[in-house]
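Ligand-bound model needed. adenosine-5'-diphosphate.
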Amino acid sequence: AQTAKPTHQGKKGLQGVKNIIAVSSCKGGVGKSTVAVNLAFSMYKLGLRVGIFDADLYGPSLPTMISPDIAQLYADETDPSLIAPIEFNGVKAMSYGFASQGKSAIMRGPIASNLVSQLIGNTNWGDMDYLVIDFPPGTGDIQITLGQEITIKGAVIVTTPQKLSYVDVVKGIEMFDSLKVPTISVVENMSYYKCTNCETKHKIYGLGYTNQLKTNFGIKNSFEIPIMEEISQMSDQGTPFVLTLPDSLELVQTYNQIARQ
Ligand code: ADP
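Prediction:
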């Protein structure tokens, strides 16, 4: 019988993963990890088999954003040559933060990218429809290594309406272009604040640049996520908000749309 050709440079843990999606931003603090985590859980709610990989060694967010009962890493029972992913509400997760027990990763780029490559490739993701990678901010060693070693289906770029963020988004799109990864959509986070008293959408950071991004780079979809108290409260508590907020909420519907693209 013919065996399937190995992909992702033969990385064992990734052989059963059908699609890999990168969630990226060039700037930190724009809400990239929040989008990555909630996108993964929205996909799970749609009935898909999903995993999330936090590729940020220097500031891993995943251990704060989800709160699994067991956050300890062990060898996988079915294949002891691989690490068992952490499970949380039906989604498989991996982050350097689970291995480092809160210690900082003080290491040079080539060592860091090698470590990230091993961590993603030696995790037993199993058979999976979508693996979401929460990319670290920037366009450095880790990002390039992941882009070169792993077949990424598409990138979701997260930004905020400010010009500073826009300038960096362009760099991110150009990096994915050079890695032959298409940018599927732009998510403009902290797009507006909807006042509960007057129901007006206040554009606190201005009108944003998503239209320019779509026309200049041929990106099909864009989404707007408002500034909401619940978003930061819930991620601080370790609960992805799409799991608890009602499906009728516009925010949750927006995430479902991002997940369905
Ligand atoms: P990044 O991954 O880009 O560094 P994070 O996802 O860690 O950003 O988000 C930074 C902080 O902003 C977190 O505390 C998060 O809860 C908060 N945050 C993100 N998006 C929103 C939003 N739309 N409304 C309110 N707070 C948000």
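The two ends are 35 Å apart (CA to CA).
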